[in-house]
């Protein structure tokens, strides 16, 4: 079976399971779990920040971070296809009383001038803009990487207007490998970041919120309020640390396999290989004779699993558990169906 639905389908490796089995643990709600504490300190240092907090999911990490930088009744600016407004069930409004306003979907190709023009100052009766959120890499933008120069320009806009800048960095590890930008350089541009360990890195569970000591102290309270305080969670933190130590550089292999998929399927007019930068391969089926649900269903009969994102859009994702033989099988099956 070649499972290309998502990089969340990976399973812990033997080395990761060993790290989990032998992890030192304690009660993390009391701050007593040494493995969690070490992971948090390590990740904060990687991004050049003071502190970090382990959370059970990327959605929780994002929502904690947004509440750190946007007060109830404040406004968040983000892309119309950002994860925080498309895949988090309105949590910003429900949990944080946050109003969101979006710019038109453009994936990783951000128009900084357009974003700057959207900023609203405080003043009755408008909702004042408090923060801007960007996604790195961009999920619905086909795994696109926001360039460092664009992020710097966006940081300048935020500073000019007194706004915070949040990074939904669930797949930021891919941007780091693809563009060679140090994680600390990314970290220095943002007030808060969320990063995920359970996608491309292959850990079973876990994300982290990153920020200042003051922000993370408040984040700990918000995590508890959301039901995210866990006890002997060092077994999960150990998996995350193993992933960071062993699985970051190998992401380049996922990028190479994604490029091979894109190049093989390009003749069918469904993908531009030049737009595939990381491990996500979006398939545009608008001119194809087959729609996304049908393609996914027929591929599944041939032991290839893909994600139908929209009626005419599908997605392939390469990851730790997908080897060259599985990619070859996927190419053969999808080529047959698309032809």
From TrEMBL:
Choose any GO biological process term that the UniProt entry carries and state it. Answer: glycine biosynthetic process
Cofactor(s) the protein requires to work: pyridoxal 5'-phosphate
Residues with the modification N6-(pyridoxal phosphate)lysine, per the entry, are 199
Cite the GO molecular-function annotations of the record: L-allo-threonine aldolase activity; transaminase activity
UniProt cross-references to SUPFAM superfamilies, sorted A to Z: PLP-dependent transferases (SSF53383)
In the UniProt record, does the keyword Phosphoprotein occur? no
Which residues fall in a coiled-coil region?
none
Q: Per the database record, which ranges form the Aromatic amino acid beta-eliminating lyase/threonine aldolase domain? A: 3-285
Identify one Gene Ontology CC term for this UniProt entry. Answer: cytosol
What's the short name of a Pfam family annotated to this entry? Beta_elim_lyase
Task: Give the InterPro entries listed for this entry.
Answer: ArAA_b-elim_lyase/Thr_aldolase (IPR001597), Low_specificity_L-TA-like (IPR023603), PyrdxlP-dep_Trfase (IPR015424), PyrdxlP-dep_Trfase_major (IPR015421), PyrdxlP-dep_Trfase_small (IPR015422)
Keyword Transferase part of the UniProt annotation: yes
Print the keywords alphabetically.
Aminotransferase, Lyase, Pyridoxal phosphate, Transferase
Family of the protein in this entry: Belongs to the threonine aldolase family.
Protein name per UniProt: Aminotransferase class I/II-fold pyridoxal phosphate-dependent enzyme
